[in-house]
Write a structure and sequence with these properties.
This protein is mainly α and 263 residues long. It is built from nine helices and no strands. Helix 1 packs antiparallel against helix 4 and helix 5 packs across helix 9.
Length: 263
């Protein structure tokens, strides 16, 4: 189910980004093909200036920054957000009420023994319950083996929780780098225009630098957005790992008491 969800999200965001890029390029093409019309000063004065929507402003900036360089930055944002949202949903679903789970394990031990407790943990979702299930499965080999099994499987569950974070960190680093690359290429183009004109025109220099810097701004904005999601995921993982460690210690204490009662 998770794989299907990820595949649908990726297909959707890639399709959206390609459509957005195509619309932006079509918009620029239409602007270039539109013939210049002469407007009288009276008409220009009487015509009110139309307020541009946020979407229109974004589209204009996207075109001004050159879709060739802005599209990879946009893809970093979309793919990074897709992975980040999937991680946020997964991590929130992985949160377990450990006190309730421990109480259920203790009651199951008193009523039905180890097998009943293992069934109770197996019926509960989350990494903490999975660790408990693995530990209870090895109870016949002794409490020490249960502790080793819990520690070993805890590392496995921690790796599952951190899955996908490396891609978010990649997009955080990649987006500004792509922005800087677009800026450098844009600056080279601006200097080429100055060389071709044979004169340094303030409007020519300012326009070229403005267009070149748009990619850097876009890359930094993408990195900032993804960094917020990344830090949230890291803090959520730390919280879940702390829960796993505390709950594992409590489980060992419960099993020791259970063994003493039976012995």
């Amino acid at each position: 189910m998770k794989k299907v969800f990820k595949l649908l999200v990726l297909i959707g965001v890639i399709t959206f980004s390609l459509n957005f890029s195509a619309l932006a390029q079509d918009d620029s093409t239409k602007t270039e093909e539109t013939p210049a019309t002469t407007v009288t000063e009276a008409t220009a004065e009487t015509t009110p200036a139309e307020e541009k929507t946020f979407h229109q402003v974004l589209k204009e900036k996207f075109i001004e920054g050159d879709p060739i360089w802005m599209t990879p930055v946009l893809l970093c944002l979309i793919l990074g957000l897709a992975i980040a949202i999937e991680r946020v949903i997964t991590l929130n679903l992985a949160t377990t009420n450990t006190s309730k789970l421990l109480k259920s394990v203790e009651e199951s031990l008193e009523s039905g023994g180890i097998e009943a407790a293992r069934e109770a943990t197996a019926a509960t979702k989350g990494p903490v319950a999975s660790i408990f299930t693995q530990g209870l499965t090895r109870y016949s080999e002794g409490v020490d083996m249960v502790e080793k099994s819990v520690v070993a499987y805890g590392s496995v569950e921690m790796g599952k929780l951190e899955r996908g974070l490396v891609w978010i960190s990649l997009f955080i680093a990649l987006a500004p780098m792509l922005g800087f690359l677009g800026t450098v290429v844009g600056m080279i183009g601006a200097f080429d225009a100055i060389e071709a004109a044979g004169d340094i025109s303030p409007s020519l220099v300012a326009g070229g630098i403005k267009v070149a810097l748009l990619t850097t701004v876009a890359g930094l904005i993408v990195a900032i957005i993804l960094q917020v999601f990344y830090n949230y995921c890291v803090s959520k993982i730390d919280s879940i790992v702390n829960q796993m460690e505390d709950a594992s210690i409590s489980l060992i204490d419960i099993l020791v008491k259970y063994k003493v009662k039976r012995g």
